[in-house]
Structure formats: C-alpha cells, structure tokens
C-alpha cells in the first residue's frame, strides 16, 4: 500500500509544488545519456518527473508505481502520452527488456522486509536485457539523517496556486534496530483549517546488505559511490544484469 502523500489525491497534487528542485535526478539523466539507453523502467515513478524528462530526450519509458493518485498527476502532464504508465510494482510488470532501470529518491528504502526487497530486485533483473543497468540511491545509515527530521527544522509554508498557503512539517515517530527502520509522519495544514497526515517507514541498509542482495539477484559489476546531490549522506548504486 502506498503512503498517503502519494495516494491521497489532495496530497499527490501538492508533491511537485512542495519539492520543485529535482536536481537530484541529474545523475540519472547523465547516466542514461552516457549509456545511450533506448528503453528505461522507472520503478516508483511517482508523479513522473524523471520519466517525462527521459521521454523528452527520445527515450521509451515505462513508469510503474503503486500509488494511483500519483499516476493520475503524471498522466495529466504535458507529454505524458509518450510514457507507458502502469499501476503496481516491479513484480507485476509484463515482460520487458529495458536498458536501464531506476529507483530514485526513497523508492529503494520503502521495501521493509528482506523478502520484499529481494522480490523487487529479482523482478527488475527479469525486466533488464542482458548487460542492462540498475541504478538507485539510498541514504547511508551512519549519517543518521532522520535526526534532522524535526518540526523546528522542517516547518515551512508554501503558497500553492489555486489552494493558498500550505504549511508542512515532519516528525519521527519510531526508530527500531535490526533491521534499521525509521517511521515518520508528515503534517499538511491547509488554509481551510484541515490537516492531513502521511505516515511512512523507510529501511536503512548497510553497504554489505545491499551488495549481498544484488548478488543474490544475479547482478554483477556492483558500484557504490557518493550520491552527487548528497555526498556523505547517500549512496548511488549501479549494477549490471548478468
């Protein structure tokens, strides 16, 4: 089940407005250009920002996401007809043979159990052509990024066209070890006085866990490097399908 911020129509419509700087996607666009890919699978495509940027460059893109409200936002954008949008997850995909598969932002961390994560990697491997590339990012556990997810640091008010000022802030509800899971809640205050909540949980995996899971899914050529837009706080991981 998708979190409310992605599957509640009122919240999904805010996503791009509240996070307009998508320079975090630049590393994926550069990789796609470097590899000269023709077909891309965007797992957890959300409101379709990366998928549409790739489609503008002539790439054939399949975007899959379990949140119907986010896909509705994506389908309403200019150029959306150039992308194939699918409701579901990687395990529900039809037969594909893509050159590149991506998981941007928090996507790789929403798989909380080893079984769900492994099933996702196995499905992506099946969707890649031999020699294809998987690229995704994840936060570094040791950086303890959740310690800054507090109301005083996150509270802000954004003027949303057609709605008015929307105030948002986040709080951490629980941190558990082995596995390392962080549960947090976003608050959205609307000018009509209504407050909507979205609770999420992310799994933080260590480097050796990531490598072992990729190898179990038959990926090779694994590379882990600093995430360009968050050095020291996140990893950019690349692997090739056997």
From TrEMBL:
Keywords: Methyltransferase, Transferase. GO terms for molecular function: methyltransferase activity. Residues 40-132 form the Methyltransferase domain. InterPro entries: Methyltransf_25, SAM-dependent_MTases_sf. Pfam families: Methyltransf_25. It comes from the Bacteria. GO terms for biological process: methylation. PANTHER family: TRANS-ACONITATE 2-METHYLTRANSFERASE-RELATED. This is Class I SAM-dependent methyltransferase. It comes from Arachnia propionica.
